[in-house]
Amino acid sequence: MRTWLPFVAAAALAACGSPNLNDKPSAEENPLFDAEKDDSLRKPTDHGPIAFDKAETAAFDANAQYHAWTFALTGAATVSVKTSFGGRGTPDTVAYLYRRAANGSWGSAIAKNDDADASTRWSSITKALGAGEYRVIVKGYTAREVGRFALTVGCAGAGCAPSTPAACLFGATFGDVLGGAGAVRVTNRNTFTAASASTLTALQGAQIVRALHASTHTDVTTVDEAFRAADGGEINLVWIWDQAGARSFVAVEYGAGDNSYGAIFPQDSAEPVALIQDGDLNQCTVKAETCLLGNTYYDLRTSDAFVVEAKVLTASSPLTTLERSQLLAAVRESYAQVQTVAEAFRTVGDGGRINQLQLTDRATSKKLTSYEYSAGDNSYGAIFTAGTTSRAAAIRDGDLYACAVFR
Fold first, then answer.
1. Cα–Cα dist 32/110, whole Å
2. What average pLDDT score do residues 243-257 get?
3. CATH 2.60.120.380 spans which residues of the chain?
4. For 248, which of 187, 267, 330, 405 could close a Cys bridge (C-beta 3.0–4.6 Å)?
């Protein structure tokens, strides 16, 4: 929701003339540094990122009394925020510093200064900070401030160096996902309400609750609360497929104040890999990759990139403790209720046979072990890093999913 703050008319401002430094009110008007206020609801004029040690200018007038800039640190650094003469007038400035929280909101200010130099009415903040995203807001001490000012953000320390993160797999905005601009495609989408919530799985419910925390609804703890909090009581689930990476994801998206919020998750996890905030994708941890194993189980077992040793396992086959654990985990990809290896062989199709492959990648010498079986005439199973129960990919209906090893 856009909040408009009261200002006097431009003609009245002009009539005030040059400010008298001795007539400064005893208290700042409309202060932002108030723990009881939700500062994030303020809508300043957004000037975007500010480069370190380069002055940016802005002006106070009847239409713009709050100005914001952002910067990022990649590690520890000492930052100095200073306002100074900007070419016209000497408005009395107040500078506020914010740090973006894990849920994407700015919350309340972490520092403030309005009187670095009472004779010139400029501001200064110096603070040791850690890695993160930060925002500076500069406002007038009163609603009658007019004139230009300059803002400079200085930085000293290793954290001043810019990072060069890999591009997010999904693109820069949620619109990129829906429009196919990223490296992924949408395979299905559904809109849920409280009336259809009973059709959601327990995992989807957990994903919905976590997605609500990407907005201001951090107090949501149940699916019922999530539907009550979302605009219109509607929550969208969007299924996303990454062909090159052999990975599937689900986006949980909803309206919050007529803006798009939510999160993107691996399809089998409630831990987000990207947040949807005001339509943008933030805190993305997934980049475009090419799965080492290909896209299908057929690709894998026929690939010239691997040395393959094949074996057919039955209930009478001798198995090591590790092989028993791997086999049981693979069968649970399709039959979650299976408890023992003996039960696993009785449950799978094709006469209780399970195909084991020992694979060695010719280029990297990476070793993997796969278990594949028939389930309802379809191919299922899992692939593990050799010597471990760490899953490298799942086999579902012949395709590879949840790939975790890349070229």
1. 11
2. 95
3. 10-160
4. 267
